[in-house]
């Protein structure tokens, strides 16, 4: 009887190990497929020098990098980070899907794309693999936060830190990752209400490295041109992000 139980246990263990290997292979295949779809739309700003240098991933909101006013804004921000010695890569998840709107795209989808690009950048000799961060706006902000729930707590994360401007938190789940996160919200944001994000944040395990800022008189995506723009909040947030990512 004991021998029979031992054989059964070995069989079960074999099935379990096989399932783990299959899941790992599937995850690797998914990352590769996502990187392949995104790579034609990479827009990189890279300072001179052979590196290794830190990198920042830009992840847009639902309107992508293509609206009338956005390209100049994102480009200006990218040039600022380049001047600080960072490489900047645009994660254009909309172009990779052949669309200019985010209908049907979830924060989970965006998060997987971010991880795919971050994992790819870790293999590039001019990038410091331990200093790859992501900054997202609106749906992109929700996406960079979603990456935190997609990684095992003990997993070697491809991300050093994440920053979320006006994140969409409706479908966001609490996470256990120890990757530091900074969330920047406008008190007057009617599209991504801070209270929804705060409900998620109260469920995080004690000690989760999360910092939040709520700026008065600021609306949605308040550091880019639009109805929610607030120059004072934008300047304060820029300072906070600079200090946060330089740690």
What is the third-level CATH name, the topology? Rossmann fold
- The number of distinct β-strands equals 7
**Residue runs with pLDDT of under 50 for 5 or more positions:** 9-26
How far is the first residue's CA from the last residue's CA?
59 Å
Instruction: Provide mean pLDDT, rounded.
Output: 87
Broad CATH class? Alpha Beta
Which range best describes the helical content: under 10%, 10-25%, 25-40%, 40-55%, 55-70% or over 70%?
A: 40-55%
Main beta sheet strand tally, sense and closure: 7 strands, mixed
CATH superfamily: Alpha/Beta hydrolase fold, catalytic domain
Strand content: 15-25%
User: Which class best fits the helix and strand makeup?
Assistant: alpha/beta
Tell me the strand order in the biggest sheet.
1-3-2-4-5-6-7
* Element-level helix/strand string: HEEHEHHEHEEHEH
CATH architectural group: 3-Layer(aba) Sandwich
User: Over all CA atoms, what is the radius of gyration?
Assistant: 20 Å
Q: What's the shape?
A: globular
Specify the number of helices: 7
Number of domains: 1
What does this structure look like?
- With 247 residues, the chain is α/β, with parallel strands linked by helices.
- The protein has helices at 2-38, 70-83, 93-96, 107-121, 139-149, 194-201, 231-245; strands at residues 44-45, 53-59, 87-90, 127-137, 161-165, 181-186, 210-215.
- α6 (194-201) links the parallel β6 and β7 (210-215).
């Amino acid at each position: 009887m004991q021998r029979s139980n031992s054989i059964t246990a070995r069989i079960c263990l074999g099935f379990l190990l096989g399932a783990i290997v299959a899941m790992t292979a599937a995850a690797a295949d998914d990352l590769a497929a996502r990187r392949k779809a995104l790579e034609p739309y990479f827009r990189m700003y890279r300072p001179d020098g052979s590196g290794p240098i830190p990198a920042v991933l830009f992840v847009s909101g639902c309107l992508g990098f293509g609206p009338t006013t956005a390209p100049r804004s994102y480009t200006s921000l990218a040039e600022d980070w380049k001047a600080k010695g960072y490489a900047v890569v645009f994660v254009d998840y909309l172009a990779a899907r052949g669309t200019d709107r985010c209908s049907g795209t979830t924060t989970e989808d965006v998060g997987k794309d971010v991880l795919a690009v971050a994992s790819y950048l870790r293999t590039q000799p001019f990038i410091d693999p331990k200093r790859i961060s992501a900054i997202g706006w609106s749906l992109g902000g929700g996406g960079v936060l979603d990456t935190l729930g997609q990684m095992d707590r003990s997993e070697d994360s491809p991300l050093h830190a994440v920053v979320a401007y006006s994140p969409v938190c409706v479908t966001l789940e609490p996470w256990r990752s120890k990757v530091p996160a900074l969330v920047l919200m406008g008190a007057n944001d009617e599209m991504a209400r801070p209270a929804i994000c705060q409900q998620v944040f109260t469920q995080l395990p004690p000690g989760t490295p999360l910092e939040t800022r709520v700026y008065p008189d600021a609306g949605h995506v308040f550091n880019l041109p639009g109805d929610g723009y607030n120059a004072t909040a934008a300047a304060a947030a820029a300072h906070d992000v600079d200090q946060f990512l330089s740690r």
